[in-house]
Specification:
Layout: E1 9-13, E2 25-32, H1 38-48, E3 52-54, E4 61-62, E5 66-74, E6 79-84, E7 88-94, H2 99-109, E8 133-134, E9 137-138, E10 143-150, E11 156-160, H3 172-175, E12 180-190, H4 201-213, H5 221-235, E13 243-247, E14 253-255, H6 256-265, E15 272-273, E16 278-280, H7 283-289, E17 296-297, E18 300-302, E19 309-312, H8 320-338, E20 347-349, E21 355-356
Parallel strand pairs: 2-5, 3-5, 4-20
Antiparallel strand pairs: 1-2, 6-7, 7-12, 8-9, 10-11, 10-12, 13-19, 14-16, 15-16, 17-18, 18-19, 20-21
Bound molecules: uridine-diphosphate-2(N-acetylglucosaminyl) butyric acid.
Length: 357
C-alpha cells in the first residue's frame, strides 16, 4: 500500500463524529490525511455509485440514521507561514486542524485577531462554511484565501475572500453543499495586539476584569482569549457532557418598522444594527421571553443557560425527527408570540448526503 492510498471503511459508525450525538451509520467513510487522497476518493465514490459528502468536526450538522453516501473525513493538518511582514502574517492551515487549538497556537506565536473565536468546536476546514463568528468577529474578517477541490470535477480551486461570498453565518460553500472539499485555509493576522476587538458587550467587561486581575492597564489578546473561554464555558454546554450543536437558530434580521413595534411592546429587546432599514435581534432572547428556556420537547430541550442552544438529553437514542418536533414547537411558539420567523442554523443532512429542510 502506498502512503497515499485510501482506506474505505464500510458501514462506518459516525455517532462519535457529531456533537449532537445522533446515531448514524455511513455506507462508507474515508479519512483524508493527504491532498493526494482526494482524487482516489472521488473515483471510489463514482465506482460505488454513491454520492460524496464532507463531514468535518460534526458540530453544525444533524445526521440521519443511515447515510447512503461516501463520507469524506478531512484530516489534513499543518500550519505554515506563507508571508511574513512587520505588521502581519499570512498562514495556511490544514482543514483537519482543531479550531480552538489553532486559535491558541496563533496567540502563542503573536498572530492576533482570532482570539474572539476561542473555544468554538469543530475543525478549521468547516470554519468558512458557516462563516463562524462570536464576540464581534467572524472569520471573513481574517480569511485571506482557501483551497478546495470541486468534488463534481476533481478540479483544485482557490477562492479569495470575496469569492467565498461571505454573509452572516453563510458562504458560497453553505449554499453549495457537498460541492467542495476545503483542504487548506489561509488567514491574514495582525502582529500588533492593538487591533484586537475588545469592545463587544459582556466581553469588554470580562476582559477588563481579567486584565485588572493581572495588574494590566489595558486588555491584551490573551485577556480577550481568556474572557471568551470564561464566558463560553459559563453559558454554553460542553458537547462531551451535554450533546448540542451550538446556536440552533440564526439571529433573525427584521425590518426597522417591525423592530420599532416590538421594542414598544418589549423595551428590553436587545438589537444589533444591520442597515438603515433592518435590525438583527437575538433569537435566544425571543425563545427565553417565550418561556422556553430549559424547555422544548423531550429529549430535545433548550439549554438552561442559553436558550439559543438546543441540547440532546438522549445521546445516541434521539433522532432527526425528535429534533424536528422540538424545532417546530419552539419556532411556532416564538412566531405566535412575536410574529418573527426563526430559521435553523445547523445543516440537516438527508439519507443521501444532501441538504434537507
Ligand atoms: N439572551 C437571553 N436569553 C437567552 C440567551 C440570550 O435573554 O437565553 C439575550 C442575551 O442576554 C443577550 C442576547 O440575547 O442580550 C444575545 O445573547 P448572546 O450574547 O449569548 O449571543 P447570541 O446572539 O445568542 C451569538 C452567536 C453565538 C456566539 C454569541 C457571542 C448566532 C446564531 N449565535 O449568540 O454563536 O457565541 O453570539 O458572540 O449568531 C454558534 O453559532 O453556535 C454560537 C454559539
Amino acid at each position: 500500500m502506498t502512503q497515499h492510498a485510501i482506506t474505505p471503511l464500510f458501514h462506518h459508525d459516525l455517532s462519535a463524529c457529531n456533537t449532537m450525538a445522533l446515531q448514524c451509520t455511513a455506507d462508507v467513510a474515508i479519512t483524508l490525511s493527504h491532498n493526494e487522497q482526494i482524487s482516489p476518493a472521488i473515483a471510489f465514490a463514482k465506482q460505488q455509485g454513491l454520492p460524496l459528502m464532507v463531514l468535518s468536526g460534526g458540530s453544525n450538522v444533524l445526521l440521519p440514521k443511515q447515510l447512503h453516501a461516501v463520507v469524506l473525513l478531512p484530516n489534513i493538518t499543518g500550519i505554515d507561514v506563507i508571508q511574513d511582514s512587520d505588521t502581519d502574517v499570512i498562514i495556511s492551515v490544514g482543514a483537519g486542524e482543531n479550531w480552538h487549538d489553532f486559535v491558541a497556537t496563533c496567540l502563542t506565536k503573536g498572530w492576533y485577531g482570532l482570539e474572539n473565536l476561542a473555544l468554538i468546536p469543530g475543525l478549521v476546514g468547516a470554519s468558512p462554511v458557516q462563516n463562524i463568528g462570536a464576540y464581534g468577529v467572524q472569520i471573513s474578517d481574517f480569511l485571506y484565501a482557501l483551497t478546495a477541490t470541486d468534488l463534481s470535477t476533481g478540479e483544485v480551486c482557490t477562492f479569495n475572500n470575496d469569492e467565498c461570498q461571505f454573509a452572516y453565518r453563510d458562504s458560497l460553500f453553505k449554499r453549495l453543499p457537498s460541492r467542495y472539499l476545503i483542504s487548506q485555509v489561509a488567514f491574514k493576522l495582525h502582529k500588533n495586539p492593538k487591533h484586537t476587538k475588545t469592545d463587544y458587550g459582556d466581553l469588554a467587561e470580562t476582559a477588563t476584569q481579567i486584565a485588572h486581575d493581572n495588574a494590566r492597564d489595558s486588555v491584551t489578546p490573551q485577556d480577550v482569549f481568556d474572557a471568551v473561554v470564561r464566558i463560553r464555558q459559563s453559558k454554553l454546554p460542553d458537547p462531551n457532557e451535554l450533546a448540542n450543536c451550538g446556536s440552533f437558530f440564526q439571529n433573525p434580521i427584521i425590518s426597522q418598522d417591525k423592530f420599532t413595534a416590538l421594542k414598544a411592546q418589549y423595551p428590553d429587546l436587545p438589537s444589533y444594527p444591520v442597515s438603515d432599514s433592518e435590525v438583527k435581534i437575538p433569537a435566544g432572547w425571543l425563545i427565553d421571553k417565550a418561556g422556553l428556556k430549559g424547555k422544548g420537547v423531550f429529549p430535545i430541550l433548550t439549554h438552561a443557560k442559553q436558550a439559543l442552544v438546543l441540547t440532546n438529553h438522549a445521546r445516541l437514542t434521539a433522532n432527526q425527527s425528535d429534533i424536528k418536533t422540538a424545532q417546530t414547537f419552539i419556532a411556532d411558539t416564538v412566531h405566535d408570540k412575536f410574529g418573527v420567523t426563526l430559521v435553523r442554523e445547523p445543516v440537516w443532512i438527508t439519507e443521501t448526503g444532501g441538504i434537507g429542510e
